[in-house]
Structure formats: structure tokens, C-alpha cells
Amino acid sequence: MSQLKEKSKAFINNRWLVFVASMWVQSCAGIGYLFGSISPVIKSEMGYNQRQIAILGVAKDLGDSIGFIAGSLCEILPIWAVLSIGVVQNFVGYGLLWLIVSDKLPNLPLWVLCVSIFVGTNGETYFNTGALVSCVQNFPKSRGPIVGILKGFAGLSGAILTQLYASINTSNQSTLILMIAVWPTIVVLSLMFIVRPVGGHRQVRSSDDSSFLFTYGVCLVLAAYLLVILLLDDIVDLSQTLITIFTVVLIIIILLPVMIPIRLSFFLEPRLPTEESLLPQPQIQEGTEVILSEVEDEKSEGEESLTASERHKRIAQLQAKLFQAAAEGAVRVKRKKGPRRGENFTLLQALVKADFWLIFFSLVLASGSGLTVVDNLGQMCLSLGYSETHIFVSMISIFNFLGRVGGGFISELIIRNYGYPRPVAMAFVQVFMACGLFYYAMGWPGEIYVLTVIIGLGYGAHWAIMPAAISELFGLKSFGALYNFLTLASPAGSLIFSGVLASGIYDYEAEKQASLKQKALGVLMDDDSLSCSGSICYSITCGILSGLCAIAAVLSSIVVYRTKSVYTQLYGKQTV
């Protein structure tokens, strides 16, 4: 009995359980990606034009990205308190939006809907921050895979909620908004005391690699399964019973990763405490960082010819001697003013660094472009004659998921196997996005399918690569605040690209087409019901966004050049 109690305690405090629970929290933390599905409902029920919908989209993006409050609160509040704040905001914001759209409340002005969608979507930032901060601290040596998988589930949440909504079998489309208010509330409330730092750096096992492979396998199965459901739904008319069965199987696949902590806690022999104490700490102590950086600065010319392993061995020896001398009072270690790249920065210290702003503006251009496509995807589909917009919204959610999981995995391989800085992966992704946007701008066959796949992969990869890179360049101490500040880049770009550029061009083309119809038919068109048809509605916008993504790739390349030495120190490989 006592052994079972000990194993149960080990299970509750297992870092893999925290990781799995964080994955489930993240599966509700991307509700903003459903805006493409709910925007046509809001537009028809409220009688809005495209510019008003774009304003709502910007409010949603701002709510999704202003997370520095959540990041700051993570440093002073327990994780469960941070998650509970997100629950309240999500339920109140989207609950109010549902009451307005479903006519439970009188017709309220646009600014009230903007506030409600801002508050509701801002709850996501608390889910994201709580999950990421907990898991990055528990898995400090696996930042790329951890961030990629967690952000991947956030990207997939749109497809998961769409499938759950389909199983309800309701003709009232505003019910989706109600589900957005209720489902995340239930899930996060049930898990908020599990998601927390548990000293995971002392729980390293030789089986961790196989556990990650199993998790990646579940991720790929989940994405493939959802894609198959989408294709079947598009090709044949599925019965409600079959949709319900598909939903049950979906939930089972999402629950599968919990087998990892169960196996580790109940079916493997616990390690001895002495074995745990020999495991490396997650971070070099602050004094060590100082000495290491000073020794790096003062290395001799002959040291340049040494291999990476020999150089680090020599640094370790010098470091030990300096520690001993400092302890005896013979040497006083001199520290430069402020931290160096690779050490722990506060947000204010990072704000004066050029690398931080280069990454920020690169995200403004590329991530802002991707978010513009995500927000306008429903209208893009309708303009091309596709009525089932939820299929494409779910598709971009699935490929967003694959981009995040793949972005974390591939960027980790690039660092550990080839010695390139992580921002190299970001530059390649931005070139990839530029190609997809250019394809749509040219109006080539299947442009909406190509755009959905490429933007889903590219936009998703950004949010796996960027957080891991930030934690490497600016440390883990203020990771929540740093990460959430950079998420402001998306709405900053979307405010211009979607709220001004895309909607302005769409309304111009819609008015142009309405004028031609009026001349041909002699019928006066209502300004509030104007709609645009054809690829011309968004082709000019996509052409401009393609150029902006190319500029973003140039900025990321500059970051690569400037941070080569940091990655050499961190991973012991000579970067190219």
C-alpha cells in the first residue's frame, strides 16, 4: 500500500505528466484560430461589412498577443492562479459575444464586441504562458521539441474544437461561439493544479528520447487522422453517428500521451536519490556564466585552432582555477555591465539589444502576414466560391500544428547536428511563406489549397522556433515576459496588413464589382452587403505580403550572423 502511495506521488510530480497536461491545456489555447469560422456568422447576424469584421479581427489579434501581463504574473503568482485568470477572461469574453450574436442581448455597438473578443482571446495568453513556462523549466535541455509540441497543440485546437462542434449536430452556427466559451473553461479548470514546475531537471532518464519519439508519433497520427476526417467530410456526406465515432476516437488519441508518465511512475523502477543528484542542473550558475564569458573573451590566439570539445575542456579547467582563486581572495572576477547574450536578461535589458528588435520586426512582417491570411481565410474561400469555409479553417489549423511540431524538431536538428543558429530555420520558413503567398497572388491552379498548407506550416513554425531561440539568447529567468512581448509582433503586423491593407483592397474590389453589376442590371446595391468574388479580392494583398516575408527572411539572416558565437558556446559546435 505504501509503495502504491509513493508511486502515486511520483506520478503527480512527474514532469511528463505536467507536459501531457500542458498539451491538453494548449489544445484549448488556440481558439483565436477559429475566428475564420465565426466571422461569417458574426458578419451575417450583425450585418457588418468586411472592414468591421477586420476591426474585430484586429481586436482578437491584440487579445491573443498582449500577454506581457501574463508573463509578468508568472514571476510572482503560482501557475494555477495564472491559468485561473485566463479561464475567467475566456468565459466572460466569449460568453458575452455569444449572448450578443445569438440575440440573447440587444444589438450592441461594434466596440462592445471588440472588447468582448479582446478579453476572451486574451485568456489564451495565460494558458500559453502557464504551460510554456512550466515545461521549459522542467525540460531545459529539450526546449525546441517542448515548445514545438506545445505550440503545435495550440495551433491544432481550432480543428479539435471544430470536430467537437460537428458532433453536436446543431443548425445554430452561433453555438460554436458558446463552445469556445465553455470547453476551455472545463479543461483548464480540471488541469490547472497539475501544470507547474516540478524540478524536472532532476528527472532525466535514458528513456526520454523514446518518450519524445512516442509523443511525435501521436502528434503525426493526430494530424493525419484529422486530415482524413476533413477529406471524408468534403468528399462524402457523413452521418451523425459516424461523426460522433470519429470524435470519440479523436479524444482517445489526444489522451494517449498520458501513457508515458503512467509507465515511468508505475512500471519502471525508481532511481536512487544519489543517481538524481549526479544529473546536471538546468542552467549554469550566474557566477559560472560570468567566468565563462570572461575566459571566452580573453582566450589566446593558439586556442582558435583547438576543436570545440578541447576548447570547452580548457575553459572548464580555467574556470575551476578561477573559482578556487576567487574563494581564496586572490582574484576578483570582473563582470561587464549587464548580461551577455546567452545569459539571463530582464525584459528592459533585452529591449536595448539589436538582436531582440531584429527578431521582433522579422515577426511583424512574416507572422503578421501569416495571421492576416488566417483571419481572412473564411472570406478568401467565399470569394473563390467555396461555401464550406470550416474545412479550410481546420486544414490551416492542422498544418499550423505540423509546422509547430516540425519547426521545433527540425530547428533542434539544425543546431545539434550541423551547428547552425536556430534563427536559420526561421529565415528558411519565411522564404517558404513568401513562395506560397506569391503562388496565390499569381492566381495559379489550386491557390487556396497551396496557400492553406504553406501558410499553416510556415506561420506555425514561427511559434516553435522563436520561443526556443529567445530562451537561448536571453535566458530563462524572464522567459514569460520576453516571449509575450514578442507575441505583440503578430497583431502589430495584422493591424496594418489585415485592418488596413487587405480589408481596404477587398472593399475597393467589392465596390468596383457592385458598380459594374449596377450598370448591367440597374439595381442599387446595399453598401453593407457588398461582397467581392474572384481571386482578385486578395491577390494584390498576397503579392505585397510575399515581398514582406522576403524582407523578414533578410532580417532573420542578420540575426543568424550576429548570434553564431552564442550557439557555439551553448552547443559546442562551430556554427557556419
How would you explain this protein's 3D organization?
With about 575 residues, this protein is mainly alpha-helical. Helix content is about 75%, strand content about 0%. It contains 24 helices and no strands. It has helices at about 1-10, 15-25, 35-45, 50-65, 70-75, 80-100, 110-140, 145-170, 175-190, 210-235, 240-255, 260-265, 275, 285-295, 310-325, 345-350, 355-385, 390-420, 425-440, 445-475, 480-485, 490-520, 535-560, 565-570. The termini are far apart.
Features:
globular, single chain, mainly alpha, 576 residues
Low-confidence stretches: 272-301
Largest sheet: none
Shape: globular
Instruction: State mean pLDDT (0 to 100 scale).
Output: 82
Our Rg estimate from Cα atoms comes to 25 Å
Give the helices and strands as they follow along the chain. Answer: HHHHHHHHHHHHHHHHHHHHHHHH
Helix content: over 70%
Number of helices: 24
Query: What structural category characterises the helix and strand content?
Result: mainly alpha
Distance between the termini: 57 Å
Q: Count all strands and give the number.
A: 0
How much of the sequence lies in strands comes to under 5%
Write a compact overview of the structure shown.
The chain has 576 residues and is mainly alpha-helical.
